[in-house]
Amino acid sequence: MRQARSDAKIIVALDFPGGAEASVFVDGLPPGSCRLKVGKELFTREGPALVRRFVDQGHDVFLDLKFHDIPHTVARACEAAAALGVWMVNVHACGGRRMMQAAREALEGLEGHRPLLIAVTVLTSMSGEDLAELGVTVTPEEQVMRLAKLTRTAGLDGVVCSPREAARLRRELGDNFALVTPGVRPRGAARDDQSRVLSPSEALSAGSDFLVIGRPITQAENPLAVLQAINQELAAG
Fold it and tell me: Is 66 assigned a catalytic role?
C-alpha cells in the first residue's frame, strides 16, 4: 500500500467543469493540507494526465469513478488506477462480492504501492423512496449496513457512507475499516443535493475517518481560509 503523503481528514471534491479551473484551485492548496477527489466529470474531460499532475505535485488523490462491471473489467480498471499513483480508488458494493474480491486480488498482486480500495454503499443523495423504486424495501441505513458487511467480507479497506450511518458502522464493523463520508457540510453551508448531512466535527465524532467536502470549499471566496478553519475545528475537537 502506498504511503500516504499526509494525515489530512478532509478530501476536497474537485467538482470543476475542466482541468484549467481545477488546476488553478489545486495550485492554491499546500500539499498535505487536504486530499483531493477526482470524479467522473473531471476525469472524463481531462483523463489520466490531470491525476498524474496532482500526484506529482505531492497530493493524495482519491479517484472516485465508482467502478461497477463484471469482475474482470473492474479488476483491470483498478490496476489502471493504481498505475496513476492514486491514494484511493472505489467500486460499487452492489456489484457484489465476486466483483469486489476480484478488484482486491488485482491490487494485491501488484508490485510496489497499492491504493486503498473502498466501496460505495448508498449514495448520500438517495432517500428511502429512491431505494423503494429500485425494489429495496429496507431503509437507507439498513441497506448501507448490508452492503458494508458484504464489503468487509470481500476484504476491502472500507466504504463510502453517509456520516449519519458512521456511528453504527464503527460499532459493528470495528476500527480497522475506513469510513469515507460525503454529505458533510460546515455549519451554515447549503445542503445542495445531499439528503443526509452532518458538520465536519460531528462526522468525525461519529466515527468517520475521511470527510468529503466540495462546494463549501471550492466555491468559497477564500477556499484556503475555509479549509484551514475546518482543519482547525477538527484539531480542536
Answer: yes
Residue 100: which of 126, 77, 124, 125 has the closest Cα? 77
Q: One of 9, 37, 40, 66 is an active-site residue; which one? A: 66
Q: Are 161 and 148 in contact (CB under 8 A)?
A: yes
Task: Kindly give the interhelix angle for 97-108 and 140-153, rounded to the nearest 10 degrees.
Answer: 40
Q: From CA 236, how far away is CA 227, in angstroms rounded?
A: 14
Return phi, psi of residue 89, to 5°.
-140, 155
d(CA 179, CA 173): 10
- The conformational region for residue 222 under phi > 0 = left, psi -120 to 50 = alpha, else beta, is beta
Q: What is the pLDDT of residue 187?
A: 57
CB 9 within 8 A of CB 209: yes
Mean pLDDT for each 10-residue chunk of the chain (237 residues)?
71 95 96 96 97 97 98 98 97 98 96 92 89 95 95 97 88 95 67 58 90 93 94 86
104/116 Cα distance (integer angstroms): 9
| Beta carbons within 10 angstroms of residue 9's beta carbon | 18
Q: How far apart are CA 39 and CA 130, in angstroms?
A: 22
Which domains can be identified in the chain, with CATH numbers? 10-236 (3.20.20.70)
Q: Given phi > 0 = left and psi -120 to 50 = alpha, else beta, which region is 119? A: beta
